[in-house]
């Protein structure tokens, strides 16, 4: 975690306050305001039970001209029916009133327990207070205000020179449990002071999420509330509008890096996680196939408990590869490596493999499992963590 | 578990011996012999890394005229390459020699650790001993000999009168971890003394497995070694050869019951399981959709840890329903019941629901979660268990 504080993004101000949404002593409500002309793009959960704020945010973002984001921790406002929608709208109206904008210019986000109504009055009381405390310096507090079972804030930043100008990129995220491809109780906010036209920003957020948050897994569950928001304030950086320019490539690379750093921080802080493992699949016939195998390995409870035990139980790796539903997989073509140690050769135990060598890799806090399917040229990777006693404890006791 | 011993099935003899496949003091090798004319059908794992004995058994069963089954616990002979195949064949040959039959008339099965070669000599030494100890009374010892992480043997039996004759049905199974639809490290052997023509038996085993073992889930993993075998000795029961007869219906019902009883016993003895939960999905547009939702709920680690905690965290239930990938699911049509307690009504918390009522259900060792999708007339059910500290312990320490 960075000890230094995150830089300001001209055009963007933040305030974190304690709305006492749960019985805790901490900030749990974050207000972010954007300059006029800022562009905003977002991706949202694909869970059919998407939360009320997701429904409202999707509606509001369609109109563009977003001027504020409101994020609360401690209550997801999900599975709360019509009243949930009304509560989310009431929060937007309160923000609008405090900032003299329209309710439709506010995007609401919530994370926390599902199925309980928002303690609306607490939010309505806290919103005007937050509106008086806005500051460009608020990113670090913001990263803490959105946490739920996270044990630490997740932040990333880059400063890059593009077309002779300094461009700033800052990101914050929260994650922990329920993380899975296609978004999860994962909230991420990335902002740059560069100006990026809306259509390009829309494309960029999808690409960045695909390369980062959609490649991580904590427990295979996907939440009702996930969202990843990318903001281009344009308040001080250059206008970068040509998709085929070197400038765009450099900006995109830096923004994707920030997303990946946040996504990896979420896995490393997975509920109860003690290991950070990259699962690479090579030699696949297609990218889809490679990802399918990578997720099957990375999400198998038997693999994840073996990771926790630092037990190079490679039988569970081949079991998981075999379960991925790859058509006509020839197991005798499959090789598996633990970092540089070959453990499976042609579908069986590699001749030179020793338990000691495998154990040495599995004992490390971070390592890579590489599966070569031997049937094509495509490769993909994901990041996962182990399944520990602590995971069960956290999730068995979450509401108490 | 039944205190009484299982009945004999005329035509079938068994012997369990200690081959010391692992460093344990127990029987771990089971030999079953069948009378001439017995019909045998089986279903096998769909894992692409199917174990060597599965490959050999599939080959042998195609020729029919099976006269013996050999099952060992402690070593799966999976991911063991060509040598694994040779080892499985050597075991079949040893059985053949001891019984004066052909190697192709023997079906081999193994369960245990993946990726280690069979301690072949130990099996070859034990097989002739087993062949001298065959008895019709061996079912109870057999159920114990095939256990791995199972904490208790799984048995079921029925005695039904069909066409004026007594028909006997006996079944044994082993399961515990790695249980998932489409078969898992699950071995089941069901036998009847009725005579059933091969084509009808082939159909019957598929129907029985579909109604039983393919509806259970411990951890969502599928093993390399699963097999379910149905034997009709025909040695004393009636010939039941007409699929449309009332006699066949009665026999089928009893055989399916034995399969379901064994499947449920496997879930109840799931690794670390403390709860037995039926997940019913009603109002689905198709059976596939209903099963997909049922498994999404029954396999979600977040749902399973909530079951363990006896925490009626119904937010996780709606999260799982929303994740099932049902096309155009209208969450406002979804109702959920915990036994008879309605917890979700029209996608939100039911008006009359109280935490106390939900808690009372979740505190029971067995209960039913019913999801009504409100979009059709199809319904399906599965059986699952919780995810406990003990699950992590067992799977983190399995090889040590």
UniProtKB/TrEMBL annotation, chains A, B:
Binding site for substrate: 148, 174, 185, 271, 395, 400
Any GO molecular function: L-glutamate N-acetyltransferase activity
Record bears the keyword Metal-binding: no
SUPFAM superfamilies: DmpA/ArgJ-like
Biochemical pathway: Amino-acid biosynthesis; L-arginine biosynthesis; L-ornithine and N-acetyl-L-glutamate from L-glutamate and N(2)-acetyl-L-ornithine (cyclic): step 1/1; Amino-acid biosynthesis; L-arginine biosynthesis; N(2)-acetyl-L-ornithine from L-glutamate: step 1/4
Keywords: Acyltransferase, Amino-acid biosynthesis, Arginine biosynthesis, Autocatalytic cleavage, Cytoplasm, Multifunctional enzyme, Transferase
GO-annotated cellular components: cytoplasm
Pfam families, per database record: ArgJ
Site, Involved in the stabilization of negative charge on the oxyanion by the formation of the oxyanion hole: residue positions: 111-112
Catalytic activity field: N(2)-acetyl-L-ornithine + L-glutamate = N-acetyl-L-glutamate + L-ornithine; L-glutamate + acetyl-CoA = N-acetyl-L-glutamate + CoA + H(+)
GO biological process: L-arginine biosynthetic process; ornithine biosynthetic process
Catalytic-site annotation from UniProt: 185 (nucleophile)
Annotated positions for site Cleavage: 184-185
EC number(s) from the headed UniProt entry: 2.3.1.35, 2.3.1.1
Protein's cellular compartments: Cytoplasm
Family: Belongs to the ArgJ family.
Subunit structure: Heterotetramer of two alpha and two beta chains.
PANTHER family documented for this protein: ARGININE BIOSYNTHESIS BIFUNCTIONAL PROTEIN ARGJ (PTHR23100), ARGININE BIOSYNTHESIS BIFUNCTIONAL PROTEIN ARGJ, MITOCHONDRIAL (PTHR23100:SF0)
Role according to the record: Catalyzes two activities which are involved in the cyclic version of arginine biosynthesis: the synthesis of N-acetylglutamate from glutamate and acetyl-CoA as the acetyl donor, and of ornithine by transacetylation between N(2)-acetylornithine and glutamate.
The protein, known as: Arginine biosynthesis bifunctional protein ArgJ
Lineage start: Bacteria, Pseudomonadati, Pseudomonadota, Gammaproteobacteria, Cellvibrionales
Gene (name only): argJ
